[in-house]
């Protein structure tokens, strides 16, 4: 089972790139972020023609998340997070696909720091953590997938000193990230590549992609019911180099269909 995450940065503006990548990479499940489109402008039929069923939670001009699946029609289990009835941002959608609960998320950027946007980011992480605890309590395999807008460690940025006052790298956010992991979640990429520099985002400015001046912002958190099935992970970095590309590259993990003791 190949699960991918892709901050598309405008699904209609970059639909050709998305369809090209889907045909090339053939992921089984895809979590998309930053649709930047209301629900009625989501290209559901074109994605279905490409072999992908979809659920989506759109928003005009901003945010927006979706889950695509090659398996069958998708059973949606949640959209949005509890804890703030005034939060109207489209940042979370969840489904049960092929025996796995998949939460697709677009965590707030939080800039400028300090300020209300940063406080919103911290509160959103706390709400996510509460929901993650509920998911873990069900005893099912769970993956929390998406653009977390968090640089977890110095290893995840080309120049740590540049980001000391950036909401992506602030210790307050990283502390909450660590608390979430301690709840029983594993960072899939760091499980497989504990010491490698891996980036998933390259800014449009200052020729960042060609200088490989990147950040790791897109993450897969797997719970204890799923982590032993982790088989591979990677970044389709070349997609970031396509014309009119998103500033993120697609990232993916491959999960074994069954653990050895389950196959007996």
Automatic annotation (TrEMBL):
Cited SUPFAM superfamilies: DNase I-like
Residues flagged as site, Interaction with DNA substrate: 248
Entry annotation: catalytic residues: 106, 147 (proton donor/acceptor), 248 (proton acceptor)
Coiled coil stretches, renumbered: none
Feature type site, description Transition state stabilizer: 149
Xref: Pfam families: Exo_endo_phos
Family matches, as InterPro entries: AP_endonuc_1, AP_endonuclease_F1_BS, Endo/exonu/phosph_ase_sf, Endo/exonuclease/phosphatase, ExoIII-like
Record-linked PROSITE patterns: AP_NUCLEASE_F1_1, AP_NUCLEASE_F1_4
Cofactor: Mg(2+); Mn(2+)
Binding site for Mg(2+): 7, 34, 147, 149, 247-248
Keyword list, A-Z: Hydrolase, Magnesium, Manganese, Metal-binding
Gene Ontology biological process terms from the UniProt entry: DNA repair
Top-level lineage group: Bacteria
Family of the protein in this entry: Belongs to the DNA repair enzymes AP/ExoA family.
The name this protein goes by in its record: Exodeoxyribonuclease III Xth
């Amino acid at each position: 089972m190949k699960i991918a995450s892709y901050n598309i940065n405008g699904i209609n503006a970059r639909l050709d790139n998305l369809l090209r990548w889907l045909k090339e990479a053939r992921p089984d499940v895809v979590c998309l972020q930053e649709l930047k489109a209301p629900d009625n402008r989501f290209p559901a039929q074109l994605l279905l023609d490409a072999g992908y069923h979809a659920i989506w939670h759109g928003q005009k001009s901003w945010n927006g998340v979706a889950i695509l699946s090659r398996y069958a029609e998708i059973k949606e289990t949640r959209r949005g997070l509890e804890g703030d009835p005034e939060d109207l941002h489209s940042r979370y959608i969840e489904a049960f696909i092929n025996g796995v609960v998949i939460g697709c998320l677009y965590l707030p950027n939080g800039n400028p720091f300090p300020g209300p946007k940063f406080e919103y980011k911290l509160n959103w992480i706390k709400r996510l953590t509460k929901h993650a605890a509920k998911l873990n309590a069900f005893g099912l395999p769970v993956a929390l997938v998406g653009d977390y807008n968090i640089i977890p460690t110095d290893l995840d940025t080309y120049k740590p000193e540049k980001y000391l006052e950036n909401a992506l790298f602030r210790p307050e956010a990283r502390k909450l990230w660590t608390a979430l992991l301690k709840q029983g979640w594993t960072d899939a990429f760091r499980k497989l590549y504990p010491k490698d520099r891996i980036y998933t985002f390259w800014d449009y400015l200052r020729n960042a992609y060609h200088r490989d001046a990147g950040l790791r912002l897109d993450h897969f958190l797997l719970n204890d019911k799923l982590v032993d099935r982790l088989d591979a992970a990677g970044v389709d970095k070349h997609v970031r180099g396509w014309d009119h590309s998103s500033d993120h590259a697609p990232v993916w993990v491959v999960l074994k269909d069954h653990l050895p003791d389950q196959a007996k």
